[in-house]
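F.,

This is the one I mentioned.
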């Protein structure tokens, strides 16, 4: 899968722009790679991560592991002397991130004539229509429901695939971070593949739908996702204003991935409203977060699997995200994850690291999987 993440364009930075309807240009923005060599370097990166102008793409993992950061021209001028002062080694991976975005947009223009949304970056309305049409065409196994309504009044549409013999439930969601477009495309691809394989009597698909009832939410954050298409490619958070009397553009929104109430603000989150990892004013403050939790709690006790799909990093993660302690059944989860990682490597040659977010990323991630 990660072989197709050529558009590493998805995880990326914050800077300053005006609040008009024109797309923001990232001309001159640099992608740099930093390798912390000491505890001091590691601490510096962790403190800078909370700054809105220091956008970490792949997580600050450990001493010696590369950290990818995107910086505006102004931010690069500010941080470069600090890198040199701290003896913090870095290399410039890409001199102009806008070139990557331009390439992505050109690829999208070429693929747009296709009537199918499978294999491209569909908009919210296209995904919604895709689900509705699947339900109409497959009434024996497909249905849908709205898990809730976003701040900008978009429906969180969940597709359900099941048969008469389905017993336990599986939850899969994508697109909690707006700029991770490939995650939405992955959910769409999975839906299409599972349904087609089932109709073609593929034994694996038959077994899966014979036992499991799949609930799939392709876009957890449709407001942010649409904004990343129309205005600001690398927008990450939702679009709810944090200060009604002070609408600073980059201080909009909450990182929904860090808003879930369980162990809220324990690790890897920020109280700075302008930060990309802002956890919200309070636990479960966002309607999108509440909606996902209600959908889960409505079938509490029937879930066997919970999967949330992100992009960038080649990581296969299991709980916990807030603490380095391991679950009692961690070895079982690791073994199952290894099967998936081995399958990906066999097909694409990619290597995935397996473990808990707290151990892989030094407690820098607060994911829904902890909820």
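My design for it:
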């Amino acid at each position: 899968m990660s072989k197709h993440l050529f558009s590493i364009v998805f995880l990326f930075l914050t800077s300053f722009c005006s609040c008009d309807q024109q797309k923001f240009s990232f001309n001159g923005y640099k992608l740099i790679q930093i390798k912390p060599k000491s505890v001091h370097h590691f601490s510096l990166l962790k403190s800078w991560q909370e700054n809105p102008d220091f956008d970490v793409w792949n997580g600050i993992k450990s001493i010696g592991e590369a950290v990818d950061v995107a910086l505006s021209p102004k931010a690069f001028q500010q941080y470069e002397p600090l890198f040199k002062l701290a003896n913090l080694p870095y290399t410039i991976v890409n001199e102009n991130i806008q070139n990557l975005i331009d390439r992505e947009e050109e690829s999208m223009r070429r693929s747009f004539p296709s009537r199918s949304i499978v294999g491209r970056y569909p908009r919210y309305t296209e995904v919604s229509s895709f689900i509705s049409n699947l339900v109409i065409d497959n009434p024996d196994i497909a249905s849908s429901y709205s898990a809730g309504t976003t701040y900008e009044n978009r429906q969180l549409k969940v597709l359900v695939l099941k048969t008469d013999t389905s017993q336990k439930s599986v939850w899969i969601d994508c697109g909690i971070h707006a700029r991770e477009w490939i995650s939405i495309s992955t959910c769409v691809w999975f839906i299409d593949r599972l349904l087609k394989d089932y109709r073609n009597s593929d034994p694996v698909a038959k077994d899966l739908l014979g036992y499991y009832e799949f609930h799939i939410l392709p876009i957890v954050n449709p407001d942010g996702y649409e904004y990343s298409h129309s205005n600001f490619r690398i927008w990450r958070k939702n679009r709810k204003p944090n200060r009604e009397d002070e609408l600073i553009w980059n201080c909009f929104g909450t990182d929904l991935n860090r808003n879930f109430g369980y162990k809220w603000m324990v690790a890897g989150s920020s109280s700075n409203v302008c930060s990309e990892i802002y956890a919200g004013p309070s636990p479960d403050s966002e309607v999108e977060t509440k909606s996902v939790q209600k959908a889960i709690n409505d079938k509490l006790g029937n879930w066997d699997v919970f999967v949330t799909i992100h992009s960038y990093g080649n990581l296969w993660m299991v709980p916990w995200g807030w603490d380095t302690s391991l679950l009692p059944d961690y070895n079982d989860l690791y073994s199952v994850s290894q099967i998936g990682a081995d399958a990906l490597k066999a097909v694409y040659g990619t290597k995935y690291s397996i473990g808990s977010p707290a151990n892989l990323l030094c407690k820098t991630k607060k994911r829904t999987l902890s909820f």
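Residues 181-199 form the longest helix (19 residues).

Talk soon.
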